[in-house]
Every structure is written in C-alpha cells, then in structure tokens.
Design brief:
Layout (H helix, E strand, L loop, with lengths): L1 E5 L2 E4 L4 E8 L6 E8 L6 E7 L5 E3 L7 E6 L4 E6 L8 E9 L16 E2 L3 E6 L1
Parallel strand pairs: 2-11
Antiparallel strand pairs: 1-3, 3-8, 4-5, 4-9, 5-6, 7-8, 9-10, 9-11
C-alpha cells in the first residue's frame, strides 16, 4: 500500500484546510485509514481513523467537532477536513493504513497497528 498526502499549507487561526491521502497498491477493504500528526519536538499523535469498507470513523478528543475524516472509494482517497483551526493544530500530518482487527477502528488509535505511512504534509496555523 502506498500513501501520498497533499493539501497542507499555512492558514490563519479559524480557517480551514482539507488534506488528501491518495492510496494505491493493495485492496483496502479490510483496512482502516488513519490520520496522525506530529508537532515539532513532540510525539506523533492520533487524530482520526476511518474504516475503508463501512466508513466508520473515530476521532481524538482534540479533533471532535472540528475535523471530519471521509473516503472516496472510487478515487481511492481519504480526506481530512479541518475547520476552526488553532495554532496548536500546527504539525506534520501523516496518513497511515492498518488492517482492522477484532476491536474494529477503535483498535487503530495508536501507531502500533499501522504498517504503511505516507511522507507527511506540513500544516501551519498562524495566530
């Protein structure tokens, strides 16, 4: 599975950005596609995940109500719509893929299960 993120950039606080993650390679019907982010000097953290087949999504508390993860099966692409952006959302955002296990997407809120990662895209929020 290959993953390529795009859509990062610099926006002012309160603005919006939509990240895309184009996928290719293996079929994703048994996978969850996750978004993680890593602020400069900090550890990578979970943002959101969606199951490719059913579209079931789970969010980190920091993302709830502001971010929406979605997928377009025909385009083999996962999206992260980010609204009401804050300075603390500044980070490199990564797309990742993992096979869904017995806990479903709830089991994909940590980095461990993910086998495939994109290269990341920088998101900078100016206040």
């Amino acid at each position: 599975v290959q993953l390529v993120e795009s859509g990062g950039g610099r926006v002012q606080a309160g603005g919006s950005l939509k990240l895309s993650c184009a996928t290719s390679g293996d079929t994703l019907s048994t996978y969850g596609l996750g978004w993680f982010r890593q602020p400069l000097g900090k550890e990578r953290e979970f943002v959101a995940v969606i199951s490719w087949a059913a579209g079931t999504a789970v969010y980190a508390d920091s993302a709830k109500g502001r971010f929406t993860v979605s997928r377009d099966n025909a385009k083999n692409t996962v999206y992260l719509q980010m609204n009401s952006l804050k300075a603390e959302d500044t980070a490199v955002y990564y797309c990742a893929a993992a096979e869904i296990g017995p806990r479903g997407v709830l089991g994909l809120r940590t980095q461990g299960p993910y086998n495939y990662w994109g290269q990341g895209t920088q998101v900078t929020i100016s206040s």
